[in-house]
Design goal:
There is one protein chain. With 425 residues, the protein is α+β, with helices and mostly antiparallel strands. The chain folds into 3 domains: 175 residues, Alpha-Beta Plaits (2-Layer Sandwich), CATH 3.30.70; 54 residues, DNA polymerase, domain 1 (Orthogonal Bundle), CATH 1.10.150; 171 residues, 2-Layer Sandwich (Dna Ligase, domain 1), CATH 3.30.1490.100. The protein contains 17 helices and 12 strands. Strands 5-6-1-7-8 form a 5-stranded mixed sheet. Strand 10 and strand 11 form a beta hairpin. The longest helix is centred in the middle third of the chain and has 21 residues. The radius of gyration is 24 Å and the shape is globular. The protein starts with 16 loop residues before the first strand and ends with a helix. The structure holds a DNA duplex (18 and 18 nucleotides).
Length: 425
Amino acid sequence: MFCHSGRTGVSLADATILHADLDAFYASVEQLLDPALRGRPIAVGGGVVLAASYEAKAFGVRGGMPGRKARELCPQLQFVGGHFKEYQRLGDAAIAILGDYTPLVERISIDEAFADVAGTAHLFGPPAAIAQAIRRRVREEVGLPISIGVARTKHLAKIGSQVAKPDGLVVIDPALETAFLQDLPVGLMWGVGPVTSAKLAEAGIRTIGQLADMPGQSLERLVGQAAGQKLAALAWNRDPRVIETHRRARSAGAQSALGRKPFEERVFGPTLRLLADRIGSRLRDKSLSGRTVTVRVRFADLRAVTRAVTLPVPVAATAILAEVAEDLTRSVRRDFPQERFISLLAISVSHLAVVDGMQLEFGLGLADEIRRPGTRRGAARWQADLAMDAVRGRFGWEAIGYGSVVLEAPRAVPNAFRELAEKEL
DNA sequence: TCTGGGGTCCTAGGACCC
DNA sequence: TCTGGGGTCCTAGGACCC
């Protein structure tokens, strides 16, 4: 229905953006590694479902769902342990195939990427043919199913790949974009989640076509100015976004769910030091440091508050990040004395800047001066962190650590899984 | 029986400056 | 004495995405 016209000449108005998305990625990898799992409902994870196979999705099992609920929905559901190293390797291999057809590849996550083949269609043929070749090669060389949407804009390509799933290809002819979107649910649009969907539904808007017909002013009243303008542009197929091959991270963070723990120094101190240690290592590894430290505290009833401070100089030393985070957490406790239990702690560092080692050392010393006049411990701490980073580089993350840091939180998510979720800084 | 971890962007109000 | 207006930075909270 939405077939490419087959022209070989490529102009600006042509559909040259690909969005490629590996299907049920973690679960598909498990089925690839163990043929006995193929064709069966499986879930990766345990306490919580990280990914479900299509056979499991047919029962209503979804990612993020508590394992217990998943088992209720699908009694024969089989849980399998995660082969995290394999996820990374196979995800990389699949995305690398995109790179064989164009240098303009924007990786979104471990299993998803955009590509623009406008400049290379003369080498490899029309975008639809490139997409088919990529799908065939990922299947043959990596062993995994991948769905691809091909369209004139990122937004349309992304919707195309969602519609194409599982294991499909959808090419949206530029002349047929409006017809294609007309009856699709607004929830497929980038930026429309549960809250916005509900607001729109209340106004009687359920399809992208209806959204496109909505007066801009009422849309902005409903969802806010920026979101309204973006949504209107997307509904009208005016997506201004281009492929960005390398985006700098704007923040780096870490969090830890605690179940239900007393809101006390002996609990949050060690946890915050562990989180600060993780973030500090990642930042220093990339010669980055950040000025703003934000702490998030979630209470037992899942309400959460944040506290942030912006320092005059960027920091990356574990001990300083930890101290700032502990100060912020104490201020939360002062503000909410009636909250006796917490369920999650998080630290995030933003306002990131690249600094070379000398600057960093100077900056850290300076930050410490500001926090504690008369001392100059910052530089020493930086040296300690550097030494620790070096030991870890040779012997692994657990080889060394601060004595006051808990190395492994109870019922913690494996570090390998954390690393999968980390963005390249 | 109450969802883990890592991110981005926007809003609104206040402080502060010119 | 009362009166504006604009810009930037910071903080806290939310929605959303993978």
